[in-house]
């Protein structure tokens, strides 16, 4: 019986060793059993590894927290608060793997970015997001919309919808994007008016109006055909490009010669009926939605910054508007003057913004009368104040130059200029002058 128990004990040990597999076994000397001196082997089964401990640094959000998750994509901040770099992303973007290859002022290729033919819409997607993800340009969503005529409203896309990202004829190979032809070279130091422009004449520069379209939708974009009713004063040719725009209403002088406009896109003339003056064209570029009633005409949108030229005479002018109708203008902004070629203005001429007077007193005029009071520190009585001394005759002050402008484009009675330097803000109606010999 004792021998039988010893065999059973040995069998249990062998079974334990066979079942443990990768377990580590440690043999220790044990006291002989009652069944004939058999040794007992102790088997240690390893414990499960402890779960990793996650350390949260005080002052930083919990991992996975998205502070902008409730905002639309176009309103989210660009700061990643989950990093410990105080808002600055010092790591490369894993999605921005493309490389620009090309030559100066020539064509270029974006390599390393694969654009599939279709994108399946997921919850929360917008055309803004899709355009930003694949083309690195969220403002290109109107062109994406134009490639998908099945989308009736660009603000309403649904999970499961298929959005076409490129033509099926495009290979879409990784490392290759569109190769721009040499015809699209842009000269260095070129100022390009993207979505805002200027009309020299409110009537003469408007050649026609978009009256209709064969497309069954209200908002038109690139790729849509339109019908344009031309006026009787101008002639167009097949293949000619015209700018699509809408006039901007500003608070400036209603009698000013020019007109600030919002550029919506570009139209190509395809067919002309000389009897009815009706043109069928195609929208080849859309910066914003194009609607019926938009105006068309030849609008200058590209200006080259020319070298300075010497003025042959003194010319005084006034800033009537700016490219973007802000309250104040500054360096690198485009403004428009009320003097042109008829008044002797030439491209490259330099105008200087001049101001006369005490700037601090001018600032106080908008602050109220209490802003002109000062405490009387020479009087030991409490709360003694006095009004500032009245200003001297500011007409006796010399003119001070606070900004410089360079003329880019000259029309008959207006000119486009670039602010090349400014010490402080420039306002609409500012006085500018070109000096003889400079």
Descriptors:
LysM peptidoglycan-binding domain-containing protein; 6-stranded antiparallel β-barrel; LysM; 4 domains; Membrane-bound Lytic Murein Transglycosylase D, Chain A; 438 residues; Elongation Factor Tu (Ef-tu), domain 3; 6-stranded antiparallel barrel; mainly beta; signal; disordered N terminus
What do these coordinates show?
The chain contains four helices and 25 strands. The chain is mainly β and 438 residues long. The longest helix has 19 residues. The N and C termini lie far apart (124 Å).
Tally of strands: 25
Unreliable residue stretches: 1-35, 56-60, 71-112, 171-184
Described by strand count, sense and barrel closure, the largest sheet is: 6 strands, antiparallel, barrel
Write the element-wise H/E pattern from the N-terminal end onward: HEEEEEHHEEEEEEEEEEEEEEHEEEEEE
Into which percentage range does the β-strand content fall?
A: 25-35%
The outline comes out as extended
> Please, what is the average pLDDT?
71
Q: Give the strand order, joined by hyphens, for the main sheet.
A: 9-10-13-12-11-14
Tally of contiguous helical segments: 4
Helix percent reads: under 10%
């Amino acid at each position: 019986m004792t021998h039988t128990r010893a065999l059973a004990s040995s069998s249990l040990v062998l079974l334990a060793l066979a079942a443990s597999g990768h377990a580590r076994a440690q043999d220790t000397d044990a006291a002989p059993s009652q069944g004939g001196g058999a040794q007992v082997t102790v088997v240690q089964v390893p414990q499960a590894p402890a779960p990793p401990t996650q350390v949260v640094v005080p002052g930083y959000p919990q991992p996975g927290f998205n502070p902008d998750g409730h905002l639309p994509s176009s309103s989210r901040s660009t700061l990643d608060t989950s990093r410990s770099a105080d808002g600055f992303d010092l790591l490369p973007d894993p999605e921005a793997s493309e490389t620009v290859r090309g030559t100066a002022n020539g064509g270029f290729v974006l390599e390393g970015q694969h654009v599939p033919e279709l994108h399946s819409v997921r919850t929360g997607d917008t055309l803004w997001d899709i355009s930003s993800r694949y083309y690195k340009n969220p403002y290109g969503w109107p062109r994406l919309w134009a490639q998908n005529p099945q989308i009736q409203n660009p603000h309403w896309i649904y999970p499961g919808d298929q959005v076409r990202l490129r033509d099926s004829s495009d290979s879409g190979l990784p490392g290759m994007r569109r190769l721009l032809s040499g015809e699209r070279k842009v000269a260095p130091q070129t100022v390009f008016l993207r979505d805002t422009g200027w009309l020299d004449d409110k009537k003469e520069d408007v050649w026609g109006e978009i009256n209709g379209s064969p497309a069954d939708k209200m908002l038109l974009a690139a790729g849509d055909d339109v019908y344009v009713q031309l006026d009787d004063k101008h002639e167009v040719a097949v293949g000619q490009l015209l700018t699509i725009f809408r006039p901007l209403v500003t608070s400036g002088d209603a009698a000013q010669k020019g007109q600030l406009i919002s550029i919506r896109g570009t139209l190509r003339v395809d067919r002309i009926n000389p009897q009815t003056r009706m043109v069928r064209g195609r929208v080849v570029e859309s910066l914003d939605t194009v609607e019926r009633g938009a105006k068309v005409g030849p609008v200058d949108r590209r200006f080259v910054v020319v070298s300075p030229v010497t003025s042959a005479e003194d010319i005084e002018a006034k800033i009537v508007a700016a490219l973007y109708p802000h309250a104040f203008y500054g360096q690198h902004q485009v403004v428009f003057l009320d003097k042109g070629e008829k008044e002797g203005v030439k491209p490259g001429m330099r105008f200087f913004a001049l101001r006369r007077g005490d700037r601090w007193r001018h600032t106080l005029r908008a602050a109220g009368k209490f802003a002109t009071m000062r405490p009387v520190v020479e009087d030991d009585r409490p709360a003694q104040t006095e009004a500032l001394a009245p200003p001297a005759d500011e007409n006796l002050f010399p003119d001070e130059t606070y900004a410089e402008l360079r003329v880019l484009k000259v029309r008959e009675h207006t000119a486009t200029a670039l602010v090349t330097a400014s010490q402080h803000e420039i306002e609409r109606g500012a006085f500018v002058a070109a000096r003889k010999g400079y």
